[in-house]
Structure formats: structure tokens, C-alpha cells
Amino acid sequence: MITMQMKEGITNPSKLSRRDFLKISGAGVAGLTLSYLISRIPQIQNALESGGNGNKINLLFFQEYHQNNPNKLARFESMFDRADVFVTEFGPWNANDLEWFRSHERPNKIEKPWDLVFGSNKPVFFIDPDASDPVWIELKEIENNSAPDYVLPFEQAVARLTDYLIREVEVHKKRELVWEMQLTNIIKLLHNSSLFRGKNNIGIMIETGAYHTSIYHDLSEIQNDNYSTERIFSESPITFPKRHETMRRLLFNNQLPTVDDMQKTMLEAMIDDVFGAQLSLRFVDSPSSKSRYLRKITNMFSPNEIKTTFNQLSAIKNSNNVPANEAQQNARNWFTKYLSEKGIEIN
């Protein structure tokens, strides 16, 4: 569903209520129809051409690796200043999240991008489905099953990881289709709202993660005199984890994962399983640096070494009569020593 947030006190002649949004919005992933899945671009194009107020829509895409990161404040501000409306992926969200956005005042010291959104009086939309939508159940199941399964033999564990990776790509396709459907409804809503009557250009800033670039590429193909798109992408080269890189190739090029892709994805998953907390603290402000670090490690392993690592961790974690926390520490000790022998220091 679409949700709009305005600072209390703003004049809004259209009286755009939550109920109004529900009437014009879709029902999330579960409500997608076949005709929409096939023709989502014409849907948006029709919305652009049927504007009641004759506004020109400027879609301003802001796509970075990590939302609300202080490192991107200046780039965010340069686009947000030109926007009349702010749209962001935010999910799974619930009523408390909406209230958080509504009640937040702009802080005296601006440190993060969203500090600029708070108290700005600009309408805010969430384009993700809310927490009740089945898409989040699917993604949670995939997340819960994306760690290495040390009970299975190595080849079966890799095959299982591959299946869940492919499923995740399909779920994200559904999620992005919802975004485009919601964006269609947002455009219709703004076109017919007296809030923007008489305004020639409406700037809609759309913030998404760098993984979700297909929505920009889809919408930039629309040819319409009353519509334009532009994008700010990360200034620094983005390195994705092997898992996400493999997913993007499948998403954009329909290229199925190779054995090498999935073995290295498995190694990254094992490293994350054993050292995840340490690495998250080490690279808290730079996901790309973490990805480059992991990529460097995985390139130092042969397929046989990856399998040996899996089998050794499996033996340690499945030790009889050893508490889980002790087994995890034993796995960390062994893996640390093994990496050190290859000239890799985790700490």
C-alpha cells in the first residue's frame, strides 16, 4: 500500500487520507495481476499522460549501496533540495515506522541523509509492501536458509544454496514490480492533487539500494514530453558480495549461477557464519570494502580448499556432546588458524 507522510499543519486541500491511498493502491505482491506483470511500463506511461493538473514529472533516482549512510549526505542533499516528494524503499514497515517518520523533527545538526527529510514538509511515500505482505515471509524464509547447512554433504549444501539464491531473485522481481505499481499510483495521486495544482514540474526523489537499479533502467526507457528521469549513483565503485553479483547477473542477463559462483558464494557464507559480527563492526561504514575483502579471500581458495573448509567446519559444528556456543568458538579458532596459514588475518 502507498503511505504518505506530511508534517502536521501543512495545507492539503485534497485531504489525502490513508483510506484514499488504500483505494488507489494495489495489494502488494499478492495483488499483482498477470496483465500488470506483462505491461507495467505502459501502466506508468498512461499515468504520465493522464495528468489532471498538466504537471511534468521528474523522477530523481538516488541509488546507493546503503541507505541513510552519513558518507552520502552531500550527494543526497543535492538531489533532495530539488525534490517536492520523497519516495523510499522501507520494509517491512508497520504503523510504528509511519509514526516514527511523522513525529521526527529535523535535528539541529544534520549528520545523516534522512535528517534532511524529517521536518521538511515534503510528502513522503513508502513504496514497499507493508509487513503483512507475503513477500516478506518469502524473503525471511530465504534469509533463514541462506547460511551453510553443515548437516548436508558439500555438493548438496551448495545445490541448496543455489536454489535459495534463485528464489531470492524471483522474490525481488516481485518486490520491484510492486514498486513500479506503487509509483504509478503515486504519479496519479500527485497529478490529481490540488496540492500541486499550478506547479509545472514535480520532482519525485526515489531512494533505493544499489542492487535495485532495474527500476531506473525500466523507467528511463519511457519516452514522454511530460516526464524525465535522472540518477545519482554511488561515486565510489561498488563491489557486491559474490552472492549479490551472481543474483544481479541472473536478474539482468538471465545468466544462471555457475559452479564457481556458488562455491565462492558458499565460502563467503561460511566466513560470514563464523566471523560475521567481527566483519560487520570492521566495515560498518563501507559495505563495498567488506565485499572487496571477501572477494580477495575467496580468490585465494581452490574448489578443493573450499570443500575442505566446509567439511572441517561441518565436523566441528556437528561434534557430539559439544554445546553450540563452544562448537562455534572451536570453528572460529580453527578457521582463524587456517586463514592465517594462507596469509589472511581476520582481526
Question: Can you give me a brief rundown of this structure?
Answer:
With 347 residues, the protein is an alpha/beta fold. Helix content is 52%, strand content 10%. The chain has 2 domains: 3-133 and 171-233, no CATH class; 242-341, no CATH class.
Note the topology:
Layout: E1 3-5, H1 18-24, H2 34-38, H3 40-49, E2 56-64, H4 73-80, E3 85-88, H5 95-103, H6 113-117, E4 124-126, H7 134-144, H8 154-191, E5 201-209, H9 214-220, E6 227-233, H10 242-253, H11 259-282, H12 287-298, H13 303-317, H14 324-341
Parallel strand pairs: 2-5, 2-6, 3-4, 3-5
Antiparallel strand pairs: 1-4
Helix pairs in contact: 3-8, 7-8, 8-10, 11-12, 11-13, 13-14
What does this structure look like?
By secondary structure, the protein is of the alpha/beta class. The chain folds into 2 domains: 3-133 and 171-233, no CATH class; 242-341, no CATH class. It contains 14 helices and 6 strands. The protein has helices spanning 18-24, 34-38, 40-49, 73-80, 95-103, 113-117, 134-144, 154-191, 214-220, 242-253, 259-282, 287-298, 303-317, 324-341, and strands spanning 3-5, 56-64, 85-88, 124-126, 201-209, 227-233. It has a 6-stranded mixed beta sheet with strand order 1-4-3-5-2-6, sandwiched between helices. Helix 7 (134-144) runs antiparallel to helix 8, helix 8 (154-191) crosses helix 10 and helix 13 runs antiparallel to helix 14.
Query: What strand order characterises the main sheet?
Result: 1-4-3-5-2-6
From the spread of the alpha carbons, the general shape counts as: elongated
Question: What number of domains?
Answer: 2
- Average pLDDT over all residues: 80
Which percent range describes the beta-strand content? 5-15%
Calculate the terminal CA-CA distance, rounded to whole Å. Answer: 44 Å
> Total number of β-strand segments?
6
Q: What class do helices, strands and sheet pairing give?
A: alpha/beta
Uncertain runs are: 1-39
The secondary-structure element order is EHHHEHEHHEHHEHEHHHHH
The quaternary organization reads as single chain
